[in-house]
Amino acid sequence: MISTTIAALATARGLGALNVIRVSGPDALAVAQKVFAAKAEWVPRKVILGSFRSASGDELDQGLATWFQGPASFTGEDVVEFGLHGSPYIAEEALHALIHAGATLALPGEFTQRAFAHGKLDLAQAEAVGDLIAAESRAGHELALKQLKGSVSRKLHELRQQLTDFAGLIELELDFVDEDVEFAQRDQLLDVLQQITAECTRMHDSFRHGQAIREGIPLVLLGAPNAGKSTLLNRLLRDDRALVSSVPGTTRDSVEERFRLDDYVFRLIDTAGIRATHDEVEQMGIQRSWAKLREAHIALLLVDPLATSAPEAQALVDEVARENPQAKRLVLLTKRDLWSDVQTDHYPAHLELGPDDQDLAALEAQLLAQVRSGEPQGNVLIANARHAEALRLSLEAMARVRASLEAQTSGELVAYDLREALRHLGSITGEITADDLLGSIFSSFCIGK
Predict the structure, then answer these.
(1) Average pLDDT, integer, range 410-437
(2) Alpha-carbon torsion 186, 189, 194, 200, what sign?
């Protein structure tokens, strides 16, 4: 039973037009009435104008207050929100007054954790709140909003219900083990298990794309020294972020920046040029280039045809494919304005890049096409590493169930592994949780949310 009333600044700290301060708990209204004097009566969901008093009783600000009577509130408790002027001093003094009146300063994510505790959100939806706040692109925003509205939760509930029905038949058989009663045909159970496994596998496999949408699509620039990687980075960013020189090997470490393109945010990573070298520092940079490639969602291979032959370019493509088979690969022939008699027909399938904006626009269009072509099938996309790991563990348990059914082994083993599969799926939405897990999740939220 939650007995404390908490308060926190719900808007960003610093100068601004407004501060919003949120109070939640069983004594939220009583605490608010101690610091906020208004002529109008406090009515749920009605905004009232009044005077906010400091801890010493002096007038601090003129502002607005709204009372949300529980359970019809974000947290499921009584909630009061104040709209005050955006002075850092006002925010600090207002919080001090609320604490003096009986509230406690909220911990990170405590409002959302209370919403979870009161059944206003399940755990997957609560995590989506944090993702929605952190969204940097339209695609990331839509992904978080779908999860907040229950897309992941509904699908998992459906799958858990099917598994629960499955487990119920097995458990029922255990009650009649001495009578050798079979309540379900094993081939029918295997068919149902196959359907559930296929859907869980699809969701698990969508994680790579979902994570890229959520955190930024890793786009790695790779190629020989002086192939034009840093120049391209600057052009994509529309800023002189990286040093550009005609001297090969200028970039000796990876440089990472973010940029938005249409509905997506890309993590653009410029890497050290790949070549044979005895320079120890440059060798370290090249090793880091390959390490960054293994994380890439898209590998953009820059080739200067004046310095790199078609077989050498193909060798680079092949090596990239070996190092990261999952990455989309794009070959870009650079410095087109310097070509004279260069024949490009024998180079791997490629785009060409010169100094004009049309070439850059064509490249950007191709990057978007690569992202969209990699979108998984289905309406539910997994973007959270915790969810992906729970799905993996559930799939392992279901694989053991299948093996036991096919081998006609003991029903106790089948039932045990079914319970394990259900437990892992339930941990995603919080139907099965541990306190340390909740602490880890909500501590990553901002204070006031």
Answers:
(1) 80
(2) negative
Measured in residues, the chain has a length of 449
Number of domains in the chain: 3
pLDDT value, residue 182:
56
pLDDT of res. 286: 72
Does 366 lie in the same domain as 218?
yes
Last residue of a domain, one of 80, 103, 122: 122
Mean pLDDT of the chain: 86
Lowest mean pLDDT: which of 93-102, 342-351, 432-441? 432-441
Triad 100, 103, 107: Cα angle to 5° = 125
Taken in order 94, 100, 106, 112, the sign of the CA dihedral is negative
Give the domain extent around 165: 128-206+382-430
The Cα 414–Cα 428 span in angstroms is 22
Q: Tell me the C-alpha to C-alpha distance, in Å, between residue 31 and each of 8, 74, 136, 293.
A: 13, 18, 36, 55
Reading phi first (left if > 0) and then psi (alpha if -120 to 50, else beta), residue 418 is in alpha
